[in-house]
């Protein structure tokens, strides 16, 4: 069984969290300092429609872009939530559909009803969780989603988490002043919320250095990732992230397939650690068209467990593989350079 360690520390005074699996860096979160966090909620004022883009600009001291804003007039005030980061010099994408997410529960004010994660299949457990939810919800017209982490969880812990989220949602919906209503979760809370597998949790200051996290972060400065005899080069551009797979000195198709499979397995981790999203184009090493099926299966298996939403668009006519990945994180290198 693999050993998981969660490390909560700071880099240059900036909050950060790292997940290590058998000592290898699997995920990394670092706080943003000059822009809204993902999940933050803001009361905004509608400004102007963006013709041809199906949305409008809304703002307070920040500029946001709201897609599908039917029936909203300039000057209207309402709540929005940041869903992803924007490319440089573009308005931040937001949604008017609010979601309040925690370790055990997701509160959805716009979608009434109690839902339980499909992965929880035991009928008795589902009944137990639904009863906890209904008792906490009372007469409030909110919707609830009980996450898979609830399975076998302590009833008091689940109820306390649920009540905290209901209180947060109620407070946000009552906000009357234009501006930030909820700051969103920082890396330490996000680690508690989303890294729910059994793990050793270390919170001592200086743990990043002691456990080799800083050394592993340092390797992210290089665009070249070693893959046994081959390598994977990851280079962000202004238009997309380019990933080039090379076999080194080997030229046979068997070596190409072996390197491509290794790259497919490690690609989600590399993108997570580097904070890369948007359009991603992978130029795999030469292989036969039949071998593409194995690489396709390996990619889908690897991204299935990745927490960042990713659409695997598939192969292009030129033999590249395209992905579209949510900009849920900012590129990590500029954040590290500002913090170190």
Write a compact overview of the structure shown.
With 340 residues, the protein is α+β, with helices and mostly antiparallel strands.
What is the secondary structure topology, with strand pairs?
Elements: E1 4-11, E2 14-21, E3 24-30, E4 41-50, E5 55-59, E6 63-67, E7 77-82, E8 92-95, E9 100-101, E10 105-108, E11 113-116, H1 123-137, E12 143-146, H2 155-173, E13 179-182, H3 187-194, E14 200-202, H4 207-210, H5 213-218, E15 224-227, E16 230-236, E17 241-246, H6 253-274, E18 278-283, H7 289-304, E19 310-315, E20 321-325, H8 332-339
Parallel strand pairs: 1-14, 6-8, 11-12, 17-18
Antiparallel strand pairs: 1-2, 2-3, 4-5, 4-7, 4-13, 5-6, 7-8, 9-10, 10-12, 15-16, 16-17, 18-20, 19-20
Question: Mean of the pLDDT scores?
Answer: 92
Radius of gyration: 22 Å
Number of strands: 20
Tell me the helix content. 25-40%
| Termini Cα gap | 34 Å
Reading side by side through the largest sheet, how are the strands ordered? 15-16-17-18-20-19
SSE order: EEEEEEEEEEEHEHEHEHHEEEHEHEEH
Please work out how many helical segments DSSP would assign.
Answer: 8
| Beta-strand residue percentage | 25-35%
The structure class reads: alpha+beta
Give the overall form.
globular
Main beta sheet strand tally, sense and closure: 6 strands, mixed
Low-confidence stretches: none
Write up this protein:
By secondary structure, the chain is of the alpha+beta class. 29% of the residues lie in helices and 32% in strands. It contains 8 helices and 20 strands. A 6-stranded mixed beta sheet has the order 15-16-17-18-20-19, with helices on one face. The protein has a 5-stranded mixed beta barrel with strand order 4-5-6-8-7. It has a 4-stranded mixed beta sheet with strand order 3-2-1-14, with helices on both faces. A hairpin with a 2-residue loop joins β2 (14-21) and β3. The longest helix is centred in the C-terminal third of the chain and has 22 residues, at 253-274. The mean pLDDT is 92.
